Amino acid sequence: MATPLAAVSRADEITDRLITAIAIGEYLPGARLPSERELAASLRVGRMTVRAAIATLVSQGLLETQRGRGGGSFVREQWTSSSKASVHRTLSARWEVLRDTCEAVSHLQGTIARAAAEKRTDADVTLLQQRLAAFREAESGPQSQRADELLHIAICAAAHNDTLQSVLFELESRVSIAAPAHLWGSTAGMRAMELRALADHENLIDAICSRRPDDASAIALEHARIDLELLEEALQRAGAPDA
Fold it and tell me: What is the pTM of this model?
């Protein structure tokens, strides 16, 4: 009986992680999850485990599945009455690691922004300004999430240091609960967060383009702390597990 029990336990863990990933905005409402094969690879489990977890999320109303071309599993709701326990289990079990890793990411973002301000080229400036404009014009939610990702990739590229970039991506993957996408928070406070991020982005890109490494480093370090704030909000919303 040991193997079936272990399999059930692993499936429950993956279910919790997917529920939490949706709750914190790694997958936003309307977004399509990666394929079962991709999820299984990123979560390091078998496809049957992922399939069982997805079936549970469908039954809870968080996901809906569509067949045919362009089909897959799509997020319907970000949080349901069944999300609280899963979010609490997932975040509280990893909290010390998540907090320490978020702090390391913040400091590394500051280092990368400093390098970008020192090494950026005219071509980098053009791309950074284009990516900033794209973020400014993006609609709230998935479009802003994607524009944010592309802007930060451009900042990393402007630093012209592959080692720094690879270390950052590896650290960020440790913060991720289940997705390669950057967490984006709950829909309730999302627009306020996006406007705050826009102000940070504008100041950061100005500092990089103007070759002000001290300012760029300080702005990037503070901006990166948004991630931990969003995780703290999710854990607070989950509260203590029900008795």
Answer: 0.90
